[in-house]
Every structure is written in structure tokens, then in C-alpha cells.
Amino acid sequence: MKGNYSENKKMLSILGKHLTGFKKESILTPCFMVLEVSMEMIIPLMMASIVDKGVNAGNMNHIFKMGFCMVLVAIAALYGGVMGGRCSAKASSGLAKNIRSAMYDNIQTFSFANIDKFSTAGLITRMTTDINNVQNAYQMILRNTVHAIISVISAISVVLIINAKLAKVYIGAAIVLIVIMAVILPKSKKYFSCVFPKYDELNESIKENITAIRVVKSFVREDYEKERFSKANNGLYKMFVKAESLFALGNPVMRAVMYVSIMIISWVGAKMVVNSELTTGELMSTFTYCMNILMSLLTLSAIVATLTMSVVSAKRIAEVLDEKTTLKNTQNPVMEIKDGSICFENVSFKYHEGANDRVLKDINLKINAGETIGIIGATGSSKSTLANVITRIYDVTEGSVKIGGVDVRDYDLEVLRNEVTVVLQQNVLFTGTILDNLRWGNKEATEEECIRVCEIACADDFIRSFEDGYHTYLERGGVNLSGGQKQRICIARALLKNPKILIMDDSTSAVDTATDAKIRKALKDNHSLGIEGNRNHEATYIIIAQRISSVMSADRIIVMEDGAVNGFGTHEELLASNEIYKEIYELQTGGGGDFDERSDD
To answer: Three-state SS across 545-576?
Structure first.
């Protein structure tokens, strides 16, 4: 219990920080609710006065006077309700906006390890469904909850003043309803805690299906995807049914308590009127307060259901906001990389601390600045992981990776990522023109500079074939380009950064061997040239590939096997001494070439 209290306190502290700019509305909303409830409590007393002193006494003057006052009170209640609703909407929407921005900003700092912890679908659920739940809950707390609690307390207080005997009935009913809610709450919370992982599974299914819709259709897998979605959807449905059924069971019980209370008040109240212990007007107002109290308690039970679910959402949001990236700058980070030399010293790596198997094992390598290094190996041999620890996408578990003689963990992350650029096999292009996408590499680049790097990447010819050339508009993800065209634009985009180290992770896999050779030759010819012909350093190129033709002309080649370096040397040295490299070479070249010579355009 103590653990839950401290956990909830921490959660509220984390979320409370994001009320900045909306504290005024958060304070004003309960104030307006107090005004609305106060006016609502006065109206039944005025009605009782009209009946007792107006209708029964035949005093029309009193009826008109009290009627006019009731109109004024009703207007005040309306004003309180409208303003309370407006302020609560602004406060809850503002809180959601601030939390959403804070979550997004924090996610941008996450390493791959952080993202793996939550999953992409899980983060999307937390930024959408969970934030909406918290927004709705906060609005209900400020408005409905305050209104209901004040209504119950005020109504019971007024009835105590009118007749203490009848007030006991209300108090008894309130206690019964509170006990029912106390029994339902813990059980329903258990089910709601299981709901949101189901949401994550559903979102994962939707995201994967929509992203890969072309593949799904080309393999006629619609039925399989429908079944997969239905399974996730039904799992969510069943969990919600279990949670909501508890509240559905409690609702008729609460209504039964309410109707029994009305019957008791009717019986006792009627006898008191006959015995002149209570006036007719007072009995009428008591009925009004009775309905007010019991309806407020029913409202509170519905609020409890929403809040129970929202507490789970709030905890999930707080987890993301409180998450600290596993990759951090040192206190005084190095702000300049001297050159593109790379040194691996006894490097080992595991994706998770508790994992038994190492993905990289005792890597020791020295790469000189300006060298072109090829990396080849079977699928799953950790070629890409070797590149990931250079750019600090992941930090090594043991040993160190040094660039320019300095441990990569000692560099400022932004400096490191600007000087070590990666071109992936599956690259992403964004909605906008080709020029817009190229300038992700350098937002200040001129059109001439963009054209120059596209010439190096063998992208200029096909770009000029488009009607709008470099101003051609790309759809989301560059779907109106072929795979090879996207890869070449991404290579050009990386070259615009003018990095000291360029890592090409199977980034020419979608182009034919002829174009691949042209790109490698162009990179070699421009090895010491900047985009304006005055680069003051030689870039180190690391080419990760499955094709032997992509790496055989490199200065040296790394052969990876099961996370370890099996061989490191020139093409000729490895052919003579490394069985794995020799086998790959013979398999790919023995049939007269590993790819045809046609362009993919």
C-alpha cells in the first residue's frame, strides 16, 4: 500500500509539472462549480417558500417575488456552469497539449534501447489514447467530480437543517453507495491495467498492416492480416467487457438503493406532514435534494470508472516522461572530431543487460582516416550492429570505440552524429520536394550543391528526367520513387553533411551492379573533395554489403561471422587466407556475376 502511495505521488508530481500556463483555469473551474451548486441548492428552498407562503397562503405577491428571485438564481447557476465548463475544457486541453509536447520532446532524446523498451506502437498508444484518457479525467475532476461532491455535502447539510430525521436516510444511502464503489474499484483496476497492453498490440497490428499494405496485397495476405487484427481486437473487447461488467453490475444496485431511499422518504415524510412536523413545501424540497444527492452519487460512480482507467493511463504516460535516455553527454563533451580514424578496443555488446549472448564479441580493429572499408558477412553476423556502436545508436557493453583517438562516449552527441553519417538500406523520405529532402543533410545547401552530390550519387540523371526536376514533389515515404532512386537520394542527402565518416549500410542493395560501381567510383574520385571542391579532410567510407562486388575494391574488408571478426584485409589477402570470404566470392561470381547490368530506373 505504501508503495502504491509513493508511486501515485510521483506520478502526480510528474504530470502536475505540465499544468504550466493553465493553473488559473484549474483554480477557477472549482470556484465556478461552487457558484453553480450554491445556486442549485437555493432553488428548492425557494420552491418550498412559494408552496408554503405563496400557494398555501394565497399570497400572489410572494409568488411573484420569489419567482423573480428564482430566475436570477437560475441565471447565476447557468453562468457558473458555462464558465466552469469553458475553464475546465481549456485546462484539460492545455494539460494534454503540454504533456503531448513533453512526451514528444523526451522521445526525441531516446536511444534505440529506450524505444525498444516501450515499442513504437506502445509509444503511439501513450501519446494518443492514454493522453485522451488523462485529458477527459482531468476535466471530470475539475468539473463533474467537484460538482457532485459539493452537491452531496450541500444537499445533506440543507436537509439536516430542514429535518434531521430525513437526513439520516440520505446518509445511510450515501454510505451504502460508497461501500459498493469501494468493492468495485480494486477489481476493475486490475482489468484496466491489462487493457492498455492490448491497445499496444492492436496499434502494432494496424501500424504494420498500413505501412506494408503493398506487400500484404501483393502476397494476397488480407485474410491473414484480418485474422491477426481480429485476434487483437477481440482481446481488447474481452478485457473491456470484464472491466465494464463490474460497473454495469454496480449501477442497478445503486439505482435500487436510490429508489428504496425515495420510498422511505415518501413514507416518513408523508407521516410527518400529516403530523404537522413538516410542511408540504419542505417535503417537496427534500425530494429534490434526495434526487440531487443520489444522482450525484451515481455520477461519482461513473467518474470512478473513468478515473480508474485514467490512473493506469497516467502511470504509462509518467513512465515515458520519467524515462531518461541511455545515451548521455559527458559533463564536458568534446565538441570537435579531429579525423575519421576508428579504433575498436576489446568491444563487446549485448542489447539488454540481462541477455546471455553477446551480439558483438571481442572486436579489435584499427581503421585509418580516409580509408574505404568494406564489411561483409552472412545475415545476422552483426554487420549493422558494428556500425551502430560507432554512431552511438547503442553504447558498447564492454571496451571502447574511438574516433579521432577519442572515445565516442566523450563526444557531444550532436557533433558525433553530424560527423558520422549513416545511409541505411531502408531509408525514409519525407513529404515535400526532392530539394527539401536533400536539405535534411544541410538546410543551408544551395541548389548547385544539391546537384553536385546527386551527381556523385548517380541520382542527377533520373531527377532531371522528372517534369519538375529537383522540385518534384514526393509523397509520404517517397512512394512515387523506386527503391534504387530513394537509396541514391538518401546517399546524396548524407553527402551534403560533408561528414568525416560515411557508413553505407547495404544502401545500394536496390540498384544494379553497374550503378553501384558508378557510385563507388564517384565516391572514390571525390574522396578529398567537398561539395564545393575544397573539403579539408578525407572521409572514411564504411560500406556494409551482401554483394562481393560492392566491397572488393575497398582498401580493406572486414569479414563478420556470428558477431566476431573472422578476417580483416585486402581483397587479395582474404581470397588467399579466409575461407568465408573465398566461399562468398566463388558463390557470387562463379555464375558470371551476382546481378544483371541493367539500371533499375
So the answer is: CCCHHHHCCCCEEEEEECCEEEEEECHHHHHH
Please say whether the beta carbons of 450 and 495 come within 8 A.
Answer: no
Query: In this predicted model, what pLDDT tens digit does every residue of 236-264 receive, in sequence order?
Result: 777 777 666 666 666 677 777 777 877 88
Contact 495, 528 (CB under 8 A): no
pLDDT tens sequence across 256-286: 777 787 788 788 878 887 887 777 777 778 7
Let me know: does 434 contact 472? Beta carbons within 8 Å.
yes
Rounded CA-CA distance 493/501 in Å is: 14
Q: Which residues pair with 541 in a beta bridge?
A: 372, 502
Among 98, 183, 106, 107, smallest CA distance to 138 is for 98
Cell matching residue 600: 533499375
The CA-atom distances, in angstroms, between 146 and each of 300, 308, 311 are 10, 17, 18
Q: How far apart are CA 378 and CA 181, in angstroms?
A: 60
Question: How far is Cα 309 from Cα 373, in angstroms, rounded to an integer?
Answer: 54
CB atoms within 10 A of CB 262: 16
Taking alpha carbons only, the member of 537, 531, 533, 535 closest to residue 452 is: 531
Give CA–CA dist 296/307, Å, rounded. 16
Cβ(300)–Cβ(148) below 8 Å: yes
- Strand-pairing partners, residue 360, are 349
Note the residue count of the chain. 601
- Cα→Cα distances 64→51, 56, 78, 133, Å: 12, 14, 21, 47
